[in-house]
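Section 3.1 - Work completed
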Amino acid sequence: MALFIFFLIMLLNVWAAGHALMYKRDPRTAWGWIVTCLLIPTLGPILYYLLGINRIKTRAKKLKAEPLALTQQGRGAPQSTLTSRVLVQDVDKFHSNLRAGLTDKLTNRPLLGGNKVHVLFNGNQAFPEMLAAINSARKYVYLQTFIFESNNWGMRFVGALSQACKRGLDVRVLVDGIGELYSWPKISRYLKRAGVPFSRFLPPKLIPVSPFLNLRNHRKMLIIDDMMGFTGGMNIGDRHVVDYEKSKGAQDIQFQFKGPVVSQMKDVFMEDWSFCKGFHLPTRDSGHDLQVFGDAFCRTITVGPNQDIDKLRMLYTGMVSQAKSKIIIMTPYFLPSQELLGALQVASLRGVEVTIVLPEKNNLPFVHWATRNMLWEILQYRVNVYYQPPPFDHSKLFLVDDEYCVIGSANMDPRSLRLNFEMVVEVYSKRLAAILYSHVEQKIMSSRKLTLEEVDSRSIPARLRDSLCWLFSPYL
């Protein structure tokens, strides 16, 4: 009997290692799981079963309706006058169209003009504007977030959502199943008590054990009445209200949109809502009949471990390759793929000014240490790296030249690039780019520039720690 159990365990280990070998696309990830499965009997395969297998791919494709209305407006079909205008005025049109053409091939959503983008810094500015939008809603309020805290600001949102329900509006709240656990008591208790319809994305289960623990919905958005939308990297809670004098809170940027792109944000929310509820979507709205508010051209881009895997990595790499003068990346977590790392190196060699702004003190130390292990690869090619002082900055910006911006929920790490469900918005707008460049320049003025000498002078214990964390970076 003991011999039979031994052979059964060995068979399980070999099966798990073979599955990782055949289906893992990243060599480091595959090696990590193979070693784990072979060297840690029983526990290794169990961990791989829970965290390593992407079971959501089939389920997501099954539940996600094909956007027929948008597909018919693809490259082979005429688009409305709204999307056929010149992309960006007073700019090399061929250069702009190259960028737009790349994203056309990565997404089935058209680039929509007529949008206005307003920048909101920290919860200090964003939360009052979002609450005012909820209070002024007339038809519906759709809110999606990764973390929804049950503290002061979180309860203000619950109150506003409850009042919207009492006014007879269509109110829906979607919270990630793991993100909900960041705050206790859970926000779902208060939403249920207030009569606010809500759903949780892949909530963890013990019986039976949920196999989706490693797949999270990291998207953040608020959509109001087809007229206004908010997105960015900001969760809901007191942590995003910043006190600079005490260096408390997490800095972040939220963006308010008015215009046709709001319809695309609504589509993304409804896809996730239908995924959680288990029903098919109706044909989606093209957004062409919505009111024009400004001159920004925008498009939502969804990424995740279903059919959208690697889309964001390809977008970033392509845009870096097309950059002419400057690239700015601001992110709390910087663990880019080797392809993107190589593109940044080549861009710097081509004479493009590449600047990366990171927090000096990270809320996830092991990610900070893993990043330190690979920064020499870009510092040696004269890429500018700055560490900004506390309070911790959670902002996510990707800026190219003087017109192109990618904003949203995605970080530049393996979790955002491959595991999380994320939504970003690409924006062609000189006005927005100027505002964000000015913001980054102000941050750089108070930041410390990292040098190759500093990285090379790390002690041996620090190098070992950083290298070990980097080794596990595909799982961070």
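Second construct:
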Amino acid sequence: MTHSSTLEDPRVSAALTRMFASADQDETRLPPSWRTDFAAATPQEQADAAAEIFMPISAQGGRLLYNLIRAIRPTTVVEFGTSFGISTLYLAAAVRDNGSGHVITTELSAAKAEAARRTFTESGLDDLITIRLGDARETLAEDTPVDFVLLDGWKNLCLPVLKLLEPRLAPGTLVVADDVDLADLQPYLDYVRDPGNGYQSVTFPVEDGMEISCRL
């Protein structure tokens, strides 16, 4: 007997194909000075400036996330950084195929959040996803249990968001951060790679690298 995953649902696969194709054009949408300009901007200004930029995880990274969630079967998945919702679709597809669970995802850009919401509805996964619009350091402050975390928003905020969630991370909770090659993520990596901070961490070599950290 064969079982297909929700990733093979024509609505989901079509959405992912469309968004990955658009993401391939990211570089053409960015002004040459964007790295310099972004460095001095607030997170909200950065989000507004990047309102048309996908900055997605890779397809391989998405499948890795899908497999991890299928194996762990978390009740509550928390994502920092929705963007247009590519990674969120992988998370929600795994939750759907597990038969239980919910995805809470956060986004600073109102335009991106609205576009993602439309995609989730078109993909038939909107009932499994809650989008929280605003700064994740505020929208994730309420005392929601957390069973799996994906950190893929602004890299300099990954460590503050992790520390915000930390009191709610039970032993065995997995925390995944994307783009280990980006300099802004280094303080986060230094933190989770130090055993004194309560994590066992490993870098997974998929595209720009994912750091998978287990709460001890």
